[in-house]
Design brief:
Blueprint (H helix, E strand, L loop, with lengths): L16 H20 L3 H14 L6 H15 L3 H23 L1
Length: 101
């Protein structure tokens, strides 16, 4: 993970980034719950949302992880999905850390 990441957050979105990140934290809980049930359809829905909104908020890595997670869920690759959920969770924590610094 990056430690000195730079994000291209649109100025008009800066005030809503904390709420955006809180929703991504909630996504990690949902993703883990869905993975415990092997609900790949549910994982694909969340991953598709991440793929679509990450870059819009200036977080290209979230978009990339959403895309990879969507593909892994589509092929029902449990091991890869678990890894990507952990990567996503770490990325959200890293973004919070970097923005708070």
């Amino acid at each position: 993970m990056q430690t000195n990441a730079s994000y291209n957050i649109p100025e008009e979105l800066k005030d809503i980034i904390p709420a955006y990140l809180e929703r991504r934290k909630e996504d990690t809980v949902q993703l883990n719950d869905l993975m415990a049930k092997n609900d790949f359809e549910g994982i694909m829905r969340i991953a598709h949302k991440l793929k679509g909104n990450g870059a819009s908020f200036g977080f290209d890595q979230i978009t990339e992880l959403g895309d990879k997670m969507n593909q892994a869920a589509k092929s029902e690759n449990s091991e890869e999905v678990r890894k990507l959920i952990k990567d996503f969770e770490s990325e959200v924590q890293q973004i919070r850390f970097n923005l708070d610094a």
